[in-house]
# Entry
Amino acid sequence: MLLVALGDTHIPGRAAEIPLPLLEFLRDKRPDAILFTGDATERDTLLLLERMAPLYTVRGNMDNVEAPREQRLEFRGKRLLLIHGHQFGRGNYTALVEYARGFDLLVCGHTHRQESFEREGVLVVNPGSATGAWGAIASREKSFTTIVINGGVEVTEYVVKGDGIQSKRPEGKDQA
# Structure
């Protein structure tokens, strides 16, 4: 099962659109679901993603769209908590992991910084910002993350580089 985690697009306030290489990746890979970590800021972004795969989304602190504050999901026996994360402060993973106790995976956003790590038995995935949005004039790396669930869980971080997608895996292999 292939899940794609992305979020913090901030369209149109801080970015114009989801990068074309990311949209092509979604079309080519045909994920089983997209996990959107919030801060779409407008509904059109979510409508586009809904056409590509089943979409699970949460409301971010900058959203003007109706969405739940969190989603409790299960994929192939793995319990997953999807939450933006602003409720606990920027990057307060200690509080987030405590809140996610009992889940196998925590997928969150808000920091715009791509990170994946395990803490206290919870696999934490923050896909960063799919558009590289940050402040009004600054931008960060455009990033997203895949989660493959087939017995175990495999996480791969990706960045958009020019007209392509690059895996951040040390060996450079695309596992999705």
